[in-house]
Amino acid sequence: MTEPWLFAETPATLAATSVTVMEGTTFCIGDGAGDLGGVDPGGLFVRDTRVLLVWDLVVAGRRAAPLNVHHESPYSVVHVGHLRLPSAEGAQEVLVTRHRVVGDGMREEIGLVNCSGRACRVDLRLLVGADLADLFEVKDGRVPGRPLPTTVERHNHLRVDGDRASGSGVVIVPDDAAVADAGSLLWSVELEPHQAWTTDVEVLVRVGGELLAALHPRGLPASEALPFQRRADWWAAAPTLETPDRRTREVLRTSVEDLGSLRIMDPAHPDQQAVAAGAPWFMALFGRDSLISSLMLLPLAPDLALGTCRALAAHQGRERVDVTEEEAGRILHELRLGPAGTLALGGGSAYFGSVDATPLFVMTMGEIVRWCGPEAVTPDLMGAVDRALDWIARSSDHEGFLSYARMTPQGLRNQGWKDSWDGVNFADGRLAEAPIALAEVQGYVYAALLARATLAEALEGGRGADTWRRRADDLKERFDERFWLPELGWFASALDRDERPVDALTSALGHLLWTGIVDSSRADRVAELLLSPELFSGWGVRTLATSMARYDPLSYHNGSVWPHDTAIAVSGLARYGYHDGAAQVADGLLDASLCFEHRLPELFGGFARGTPTVPVPYPAACAPQAWAAAAPVELLRALIGLTPADDGLACTPFVPHGLLPLRLDGVRSRGASYLVEVASDGRHRVRRRT
Questions:
Q1: Residue in 584, 569, 574, 556 with CA at minimum distance from that of residue 656
Q2: What is the pLDDT confidence band of residue 472, given thresholds at 50, 70 and 90?
Q3: Least confident of 152-156, 401-405, 676-680
Q4: pLDDT for the residue numbered 347
């Protein structure tokens, strides 16, 4: 891999007609007919390696015309196609089906149906090719897309091997009737009138020299396969929502489905789950994305937050390594499993260029002890928390603000969540130079210090809790002194290398309210700005205000709307008591979900509502994407006012009337399940189920 971590502004764009199925770190991108060879970028990817480049079906020398694509689940799809074959007696109609399931490999059942009353003979050829390319190279367009040599073994198995260092490879296993050559499998099929014929083909993958056990092996009923069981368990534990508001019902249902599909597991610890950042290119553990998603998902899946923190703690930095920006105590930015990595989730190639993942880790651990109970925070996790706080202290400047500057030219130039090359800029458009202390990061550090106080009270008899709170109070005071811009009436978005305030008006204000670092005397003004036409588009909160020089509604970070960013603003407004404003912003985002078929994308255009009349998609947005999928959960939590309490679950709702009456069953806290009800008149109750 060359310079894998450099931000390229936009990920690879998939065609609107492409079809994606995925299971954990396996995903397959093809066209409507089920072929892979004509999709760019496309193929079957397993653990960050493209193991199939070509998988194209030719029947009687023709390709079937797509009729239908049916998604059975996130990991399985049925393609239905049609062929009209010429013959002396008239055209012969043949139906072609391809039932594909993925998971550490792939299995595909291919079917033919003779629709006519005459017998026919057809030759069916499956073209196969593999380049074993690294995912980074594929999505950035840095591979030629040419198959490696294919060899035939065991009569009709096809095999492709990568280099010895990677130990990667793929084996294609058909039934005994298939005939193989160096690039395809061939079946000669005799079809009686109205007869159906099927065969299935397995794709087995080798990683690190070992052949992976496919999750859908031949002969195993789908209902007994591990992905089916995982999905069933996920839905069984998911809360159910009753509300007259269709938007909220449907967007939550879609979010639950998507978040279930974005889970990844460590093969060494299959009971431990973490949340990946997004499909298809970011099916990997990301520090910032996975942690913010986990925080939002605590009422739905507290175990997922705990698993994410365990995975991140297992890969916490140990020493300084400039090329990966690793440092002792630092939480990673991204973990990959490609040719440079090893077999397990716990052994991939890590890059650490994130300034916010480390305080977000401590924040999440503080919430885990509240939602899961003290017994969830084991001594090893407490050790990881304190190492993270040590890194924060060492990485803070002389004023005590956590800042960043990349350690390698191949690293990310900007290391907060707006990590595009121009993501941090002044009001006049000039780019800020590192070291940079981001405003929202100071908020995360403030919340992390308070989280450590909470952990001290829960696990250490309160020892040191007052000290951690004093440190938080001191940071809050210094932050107000240095970041507040009285002449403009808002907080600077950052301090640059010369310690000058970066005066752009951004959505960071929502994060500041969310973390609680805003002094109450400033809160009215901050809320006013978040709800102003400069930042609130009517659909969501813009990343950069319309009055700023670099404002561009279709940029990545300079005027677009990110659903997770907007959900954070809603929670921040609610935290400070601005319930009407929070409900207004939440309503806009729920309306936007209708225009995206109830699946909020990673981001969308920051155009004002009404010009145009619908939200404008961002061309290369991920969907599903973890924190976008988690945003509706966060909206609902904020509107209902759900917080864990010593005696169960507290509820302080300000639910808009259009969502009432509301019934949320299955919220989880400290091992128990709760039913939350809010009546049409606003009265509410919380009942413990188990």
A1: 584
A2: very high
A3: 152-156
A4: 41
- The residue with greater pLDDT, 611 or 308, is 308
What DSSP designation does 12 have?
Answer: P
Q: Is the dihedral of CA 354, 356, 359, 363 positive or negative?
A: negative
Q: Stretch 90-100: mean pLDDT, rounded?
A: 93
Q: How far is CA 57 from CA 33, 65, 520, in A?
A: 9, 11, 65
Calculate mean pLDDT across residues 510-528.
Answer: 98
Report which residue type is found at 415: Q
Q: Cα–Cα distance between 680 and 273 in angstroms, integer?
A: 38
Give the tens place of pLDDT for each residue, 330-359.
999 998 865 544 333 334 489 999 999 999
Interatomic CA distance for residues 435 and 501, integer angstroms: 12
Residues 6+ apart with CB under 8 A from 680: 657, 660, 661
| Weakest mean pLDDT among 22-26, 561-565, 638-642 | 22-26
Instruction: Give the closest residue to 415 by CA, choosing from 136, 140, 6.
Output: 6
Are 569 and 514 spatial neighbours (Cβ–Cβ below 8 Å)? yes
Q: CA-CA distance, 519 to 593, in Å (whole number)?
A: 33
Q: Are 304 and 273 in contact (CB under 8 A)?
A: yes
Mean pLDDT estimate for the chain: 93
**What's the Cα-to-Cα distance from 549 to each of 138, 225, 503, 666, rounded to whole Å?**
34, 54, 11, 47
Mean pLDDT of 477-500: 98
User: CA 627, CA 563: separation in Å to the nearest integer?
Assistant: 8
- Cα dihedral 418, 642, 596, 507, rounded to 10, equals -30
Radius of gyration of the chain (CA): 26
The pLDDT score that the predictor gives to residue 344 is 30
Q: What DSSP assignment string belongs to 31-80?
A: -TTS-STTSTT-EEEETTEEEESEEEEEETTBPPEEEEEEEEETTEEEEE
3-state class (DSSP) for residue 468: helix
Angle 444-448-449 from CA coordinates, rounded to 5°: 120
Q: How far is CA 330 from CA 302, 315, 388, 390, 434, in A?
A: 23, 9, 6, 9, 19
Mean pLDDT of 486-510: 98
Q: Which of 101, 61, 102 is nearest to 83 (CA)?
A: 61
Classify the phi-psi angles of 627: left when phi > 0, otherwise alpha if psi is within -120 to 50, otherwise beta.
alpha
Q: What is d(CA 507, CA 482) in angstroms, rounded to the nearest whole number?
A: 18
Q: How far is CA 136 from the centre of its chain?
A: 17
Q: Are 155 and 175 within 8 A, CB to CB? A: no
CA 567, CA 575: separation in Å to the nearest integer? Answer: 12
| Gap between the Cα atoms of 583 and 589, Å rounded | 10
**Does residue 621 surpass a pLDDT of 70?**
yes
Q: Above pLDDT 90, what percent of the chain?
A: 82
Q: Looking at the predicted structure, is the pLDDT value of residue 11 above 60?
A: no
Q: Which stretches within 425-578 are classed as H helix?
A: 439-459, 465-483, 508-515, 520-530, 563-575
Average pLDDT over residues 307-332: 96
d(CA 484, CA 478): 10
Residue 377 is encoded by which pair of tokens?
């925070």
Question: What's the mean pLDDT in 39-52?
Answer: 91
Alpha-carbon dihedral angle through residues 631, 636, 639, 642, given to the nearest 10 degrees: -110
Distance of CA 237 to the CA centre of its chain: 20
User: What per-residue confidence (pLDDT) applies to 165?
Assistant: 76
Structure confidence at residue 78 (pLDDT): 97
Strand pairing class (151-153; 157-161): antiparallel
